């Protein structure tokens, strides 16, 4: 009997299914229902892709037109409808018949399709013109089904309830001939797909299916067994079977050569109404009263085998053919993945249907297994050498030794075609595997037996689907979702036997060593040395060696391994249509990798010169994964890979050379990071500059206290318009005027004002004027009027004169030693919180500057911004106390709400801060904190007054001992006693106020020039 593995792929419950179809390329099943709907299912993901309503009456037929992305439906409203199955758009509607439409068949090549109906007519349609091209008349009852002849698309057959099958020719209005023999109406008809038999099959209400020879017009066979009407029939396009479906709820599987009943399927979904298949696939779609099912019969792997010399033998149905790859190699260069054209030779028909073909290890014999029998042929002359009954057949590694499984309890071992022993396992044997040991599979384990003695070697708790042995001692055991690589120790087995111990139920524990487990679904495989070559379920050609998986190619369709020919350095594969392809895999590379895994480095080094240049990077990656990175660096030819390896090995010289060659910012950045980790600061600085890593350079220069580097960085960033880094560099260099100029140039006037208020208070008046002019230019005079300056409202700027005095003192300080390094932080951190304004106040000095505009301007009795003056609307004492806008009774074009939401409090909240402090840049104290004298009682420093200072102020300064002591206190970094007694605002308070005010003004005035990071 045929050993067909029948697997259900999809089961979908629904209303009554009247028609099914299978898409030729996509994993889709089409169902038309009695309720007027059409469903499209993906039988691989088991999900419904599309569902739409065609009509309110039954849709009795639906067909895919893949080349147009269409579905053609016929329904009981007598209409043919065409839909695009991607968009579900209705393409066209035809008023086709005058009664229910029963069937539709699509021409395989031309833009034609035919339809049959209960009006007893068959019509031919052209979808380019949307016209009926021909009407076929002759049946005297409902025409239930039409089907095109796959061998001659100009002819088709029809089945009718008038008990006949008619064969028609396109272009002829009368049938070519009529087949009669059924006792009741004929429901279905189908053609035999193979080329050797001119057969068709029909099913009828007389509960039988008949096989017809349409050349001789005779009935060849009648298939009886159904208990109700036969509604669907088909010849399977790939397997030697006939399928018949009946209203008794069963689908029967018949052998197409012996007409023997092989199997009966009953899925409990009531009556069978529809059946569909597609050429090149073993999938069958079935439609029932209560839903639809997709099943897969047998395996799609073709029956074929190749010996070590490149001779291929395969089976097409029962015909055996042979081809030789040597002829292909002589034609010229073969491209990877290119289809190979082979000249075939017919060896004749096989007496059994071949389900598997397999050469023995030396290639002299070929076994054909199927139908519960086996036949051994000579490979050259194709002569029958031996035969027998067998459910399975496997070869041993030793020539002339093989085993057959006759039943689940008996396995026979043969040598030189003579029975040598019988193995009767103590479990039900469900499968056997050949190789160095005989593998026997049960429902929950795999047992290995010795070919010679028949003794149990090892039992493993695993259920394999395939076992592959290498020529050495490696074995791969493949399951449904993973595979295991094991090493067989023949010496351990021999030692155990010599010890005289009794073999337990689990066998010899030391017989196998597990080398690896990999999660993958293997389709076909073979060993090449110690490399395991395989194809998997996601259509990849890979090989496994030493724990590493190398992908050779991504395949565009399911492919099956034939084998590897070392002299060609190529692996050969074939698809289910027996179309061979090949891919290059260097045997030298495989041997090198094998030697590395065996730690035979001396021999491996000798092979290196033979490895092609294009394969060396692949070898280098293999060495890298094995942990031999130094060797990988020497072997690799890919510059990116060499750079990665050099980075890993911290080879600074090679890394620098490759970075100079590639000159990529990313590469330089990686070099800089590596140099920093290796304390190579000079190389890190060069790399950062080449990578334009300005933030990294800023970090490097600040932590090392490098003013020259900061100067260069500031200039470079200014050229690159990296304003935020430029500002930080200038600030750290204590070039405050340049910081202020940068803020002004970049139109950050609000920030410039606040910066000047903190560090350069003498410039606040000029900056406020610029700020006002900027606002007025933007059409915001109200906001401009709300800004106050020290020259106009001195009472809003407490201690502004002291701040200017502190600014002058700061400018006189000696900062010749430059920046402080990060290591000086501990020594100078106490000086970071000094309040210079408070120190100037406690010193008791008179301001050495000329009378400032603050002192020259009388203060207001109650200082208010123009906004508050407008909001509170007080009665002014004089016109000088209010702005012109207030006299005019307007708010500069803005109502009270605008002032409240956008302007109110900007002047008062921004400038009327309590006791602002003057902060000196931190590095100004580096000298005092680093100098040993800073920890002693220092002598008063020599300070030269600026030229613009008045002589009187200079004399006062020099003659005042108290002032000298106070200044010395300032420069020493120690707070004065008065400062310790009187609490002053913390240095961070003014910074917080500054940040808050910048946030307030930035939304209205600021522009993004790169300062936001500050």
Outline of the structure:
GO terms for molecular function: structural molecule activity. Helices cover 27% and strands 31% of the residues.
Helix content estimate: 25-40%
Shape call: flat
Q: Specify the CATH architecture of the domain at 6-297.
A: 7 Propeller
Highest CATH level, the class of the domain at 6-297: Mainly Beta
Report the span from N to C terminus: 84 Å
With strands numbered from the N-terminus, the spatial order across the biggest sheet is 1-28-27-26
Q: What does the main sheet amount to?
A: 4 strands, antiparallel
Structural class: alpha+beta
Q: Would you report the number of β strands?
A: 55
Q: Can you tell me the residue ranges where pLDDT is under 50 for at least 5 consecutive residues?
A: 848-1014
Strand content: 25-35%
Question: Which value, in Å, is the CA radius of gyration?
Answer: 47 Å
CATH 4th-level superfamily of the domain at 6-297: YVTN repeat-like/Quinoprotein amine dehydrogenase
Main location: membrane
Subcellular location: Cytoplasmic vesicle, COPI-coated vesicle membrane; Golgi apparatus membrane
InterPro entries: Beta-prop_COPA/B_2nd (IPR006692), Coatomer_complex_subunit (IPR050844), COPB2 (IPR016453), TPR_COPA_B (IPR056176), WD40/YVTN_repeat-like_dom_sf (IPR015943), WD40_PAC1 (IPR020472), WD40_repeat_dom_sf (IPR036322), WD40_rpt (IPR001680)
Domain COPA/B second beta-propeller: 317-575
């Amino acid at each position: 009997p045929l050993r067909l593995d029948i697997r259900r792929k999809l089961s979908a419950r629904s209303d009554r299914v009247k028609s099914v179809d299978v898409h030729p390329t996509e994993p889709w099943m089409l169902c038309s229902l009695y309720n007027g709907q059409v469903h499209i299912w993906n039988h691989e993901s088991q999900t419904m892709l599309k569902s739409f309503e065609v009509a309110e009456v039954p849709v009795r037929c639906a067909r895919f037109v893949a080349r147009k992305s269409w579905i053609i439906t016929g329904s009981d409203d007598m209409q043919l409808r065409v839909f695009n199955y991607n968009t579900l758009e209705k393409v066209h509607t035809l008023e086709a018949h005058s009664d229910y439409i029963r069937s539709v068949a699509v021409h395989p090549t031309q833009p034609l399709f035919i339809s049959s109906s209960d009006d007893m007519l068959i019509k031919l349609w052209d979808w380019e013109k949307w016209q009926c091209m021909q009407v076929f008349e002759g049946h005297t009852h409902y025409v239930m089904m039409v089907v095109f002849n796959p061998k001659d698309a100009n002819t088709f057959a029809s089945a009718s309830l008038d008990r006949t099958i008619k064969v028609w020719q396109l272009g002829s209005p009368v049938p070519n001939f009529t087949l009669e023999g059924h006792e009741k109406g004929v429901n279905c008809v189908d053609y035999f797909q193979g080329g050797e038999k001119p057969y068709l099959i029909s099913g009828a209400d007389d509960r039988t299916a008949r096989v017809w020879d349409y050349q001789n017009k005779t009935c060849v066979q009648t298939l009886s067994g159904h208990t109700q009407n036969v509604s669907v029939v088909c010849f399977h396009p790939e397997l030697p079977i006939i399928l018949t479906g009946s209203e008794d709820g069963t689908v029967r599987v018949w052998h197409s050569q012996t007409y023997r009943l092989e199997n009966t399927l009953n899925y409990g979904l009531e009556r069978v109404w529809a059946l569909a298949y597609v050429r090149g696939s073993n999938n069958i779609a079935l439609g029932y009263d209560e839903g639809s099912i997709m099943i897969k019969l047998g395996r799609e792997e073709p029956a074929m085998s190749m010996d070590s010399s490149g001779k291929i033998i395969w089976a097409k149905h029962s015909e055996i053919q042979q081809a030789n790859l040597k002829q292909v190699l002589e034609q010229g260069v073969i491209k990877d993945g290119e289809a190979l054209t082979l000249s075939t030779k017919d060896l004749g028909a096989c007496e059994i249907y071949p389900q598997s073909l397999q050469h023995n290890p030396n290639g002299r014999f070929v076994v054909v297994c199927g139908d519960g029998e086996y036949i051994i042929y000579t490979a050259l002359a194709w002569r029958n050498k031996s035969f027998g009954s067998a459910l399975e057949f496997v070869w041993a590694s030793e020539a002339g030794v093989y085993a057959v499984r006759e039943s689940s309890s008996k396995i026979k071992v043969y040598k030189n075609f003579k029975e040598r022993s019988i193995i009767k396992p103590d479990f039900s044997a469900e499968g056997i595997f050949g190789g160095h040991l005989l593998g026997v599979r049960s429902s929950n384990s795999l047992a290995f037996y010795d070919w010679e003695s028949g003794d149990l070697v090892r039992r493993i708790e695993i259920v394999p689907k395939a076992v592959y042995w290498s020529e050495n001692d490696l074995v791969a055991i493949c399951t449904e979702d993973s595979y295991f690589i094991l090493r067989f120790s023949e010496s351990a087995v021999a030692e155990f036997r010599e010890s005289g111990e009794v073999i337990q139920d689990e066998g010899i524990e030391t017989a196998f060593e597990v080398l690896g487990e990999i999660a993958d679904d293997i389709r076909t495989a073979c060993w090449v040395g110690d490399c395991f070559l395989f194809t998997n379920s996601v259509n990849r050609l890979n090989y496994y060696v030493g724990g590493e998986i190398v992908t050779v190619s991504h395949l565009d369709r399911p492919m099956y391994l034939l084998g590897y020919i070392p002299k060609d350095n190529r692996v050969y594969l074939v698809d289910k249509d027996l179309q061979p392809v090949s891919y290059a895999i260097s045997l030298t590379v495989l041997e090198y990798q094998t030697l590395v895994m065996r730690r035979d480095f001396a021999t491996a080094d000798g092979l290196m010169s033979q490895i092609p240049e294009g394969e060396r990077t692949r070898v280098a990656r293999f060495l890298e994964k094995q942990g031999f990175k130094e060797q990988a660096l020497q072997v690799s030819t890919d510059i990116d890979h060499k750079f990665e390896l050099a980075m890993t090995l911290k080879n600074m010289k090679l890394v620098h050379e490759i970075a100079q060659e590639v000159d990529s910012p990313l590469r330089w950045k990686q070099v800089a990071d590596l140099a920093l980790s290796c304390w190579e600061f000079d190389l890190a600085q060069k790399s950062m500059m080449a990578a334009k890593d300005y933030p990294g350079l800023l970090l490097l220069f600040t932590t090392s206290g490098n003013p020259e580097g900061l100067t260069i960085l500031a200039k470079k960033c200014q050229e690159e318009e990296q304003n935020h880094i430029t500002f930080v560099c200038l600030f750290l260099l204590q070039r405050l005027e340049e910081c202020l100029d940068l803020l002004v140039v970049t139109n950050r006037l609000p920030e410039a004002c606040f910066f000047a208020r903190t560090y350069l208070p003498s410039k606040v008046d000029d900056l406020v004027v610029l700020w006002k002019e900027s606002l007025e230019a933007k059409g915001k005079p109200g906001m401009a009027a709300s800004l106050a300056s020290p020259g106009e409202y001195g009472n809003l700027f407490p201690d502004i004169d002291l701040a200017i005095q502190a600014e002058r003192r700061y400018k006189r300080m000696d900062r010749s030693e430059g920046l402080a390094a990060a290591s000086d932080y501990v020594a100078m951190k106490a000086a970071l919180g000094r309040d210079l304004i408070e120190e100037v106040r406690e010193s008791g000095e008179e301001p050495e500057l000329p009378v400032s505009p603050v002192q020259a301007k009388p203060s207001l009795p109650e200082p208010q911004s123009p906004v508050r003056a407008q909001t509170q609307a007080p009665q002014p004492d004089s016109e000088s106390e209010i702005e012109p806008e207030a006299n005019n009774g307007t708010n500069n074009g803005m109502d009270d709400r605008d002032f409240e939401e956008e302007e109110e409090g900007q002047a008062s909240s921004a400038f009327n801060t309590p006791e602002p402090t003057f902060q000196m840049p931190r590095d100004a104290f580096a000298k005092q904190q680093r100098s040993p004298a800073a920890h002693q009682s220092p002598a008063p420093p020599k300070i030269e007054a600026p030229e613009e200072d008045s002589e009187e102020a200079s004399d006062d300064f020099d003659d005042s001992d108290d002032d000298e002591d106070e200044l010395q206190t300032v420069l020493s970094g120690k707070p004065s006693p008065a400062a310790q007694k009187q609490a002053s605002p913390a240095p961070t308070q003014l910074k917080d106020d500054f940040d808050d005010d910048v946030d307030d003004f930035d939304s209205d005035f600021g522009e993004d020039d790169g300062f936001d990071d500050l």
